[in-house]
Amino acid sequence: MNEYVKAFQKQGYVLVRNFISKEMGKHLFEYLKLYEYDTKLKGTYHEFEKDVQVSNTFVAGHGNMIFDSLMKTMKYKMEYCTGLDLFPTYSYTRLYKSGNELKRHKDRPSCEISVTVKLSDSGWYNWPIWMVNTPCYLNDGDAVIYRGNELEHWREPCGGYDGYQMGQVFMHYVDKNGPYVEHKYDIKMYPPRIAMENFFES
Ligand SMILES: [Fe+2]
User: Fold this and answer.
1) N or C: which end of the chain has fewer CB within 10 A?
2) Around ion ligand 1, which residues have CB less than 5 A away?
3) Which domain, by its residues, includes 154?
4) How far apart are CA 46 and CA 28, in angstroms?
5) Which of 45-49, 69-73, 161-165 has the lowest mean pLDDT?
6) Residue 92, strand partner residues
7) Measured between alpha carbons, how far is residue 31 from residues 78, 109, 165 in Å?
């Protein structure tokens, strides 16, 4: 059993440095900023602010293709760090802003095994995610893997300067041998995602 699996089993979460490369993190952060800019040019920005957990943030969506494909790519590392065989469920992305807050919460069953990856930020400030009363400070490409439907997690109000931004992607999985396997590809919540099965299993 490797050190990540030991920590994950003991704590219910594990911090993984360089989960993705810093360059990949930066690239995806730039993609999010470009995506946001594009919605402003097209006049559709308001459609991307509707986040029930965090107000005044930009969301590139549930199941954005670039992040769903990253979720598939990183499945092997999720399995290595948890010691579990997994099915992907869905991805979600936020471009956080100064003043944002994520209340203490647990997530739905599709988030049984979750990872939150820091893509990058605008610098000079680091905004931690809290796991079981421990602040986790992430650098570009670092991640926390955690039991999303069991562990309370949150972010205190973001104290970054005016204009501070941070890109974060959440990728969710379920244990192939666990109680939530019926949520694979998030088909319970979004039945059209059954069409993704061939993609995720190819
Ligand atoms: Fe959450």
Assistant:
1) C
2) 107
3) 3-201
4) 21
5) 45-49
6) 170
7) 23, 29, 13
Phi/psi of residue 165, nearest 5 degrees: -140, 150
What pLDDT, in 10s, does the model give residues 21-70?
999 999 999 999 999 999 989 988 888 777 778 888 888 888 899 999 99
Could you tell me how many residues make up the chain? Answer: 202
pTM of the entire predicted model = 0.95
For residue 158, report the distance from its CA to the centre of ligand 1, in Å: 16
Query: Amino acid letter at 180?
Result: Y
What total of structural domains would you count in the chain?
Answer: 1
Question: In angstroms, what is the span from residue 167 Cα to ligand 1's centroid?
Answer: 15
- 107-147 confidence digits (pLDDT tens): 999 999 999 999 999 999 999 999 988 999 999 999 999 99
- CA 60 – ligand 1 centroid, Å: 16
* Radius of gyration of the chain, Cα coordinates, nearest whole angstrom: 16
Q: Which residue has the tokens 């969301």?
A: 59
SS3 of residue 84 by DSSP = coil
Alpha carbon distances (Å) from 176 to 7, 30, 68, 79, 188: 20, 34, 18, 11, 15
For residue 112, give the DSSP letter.
S
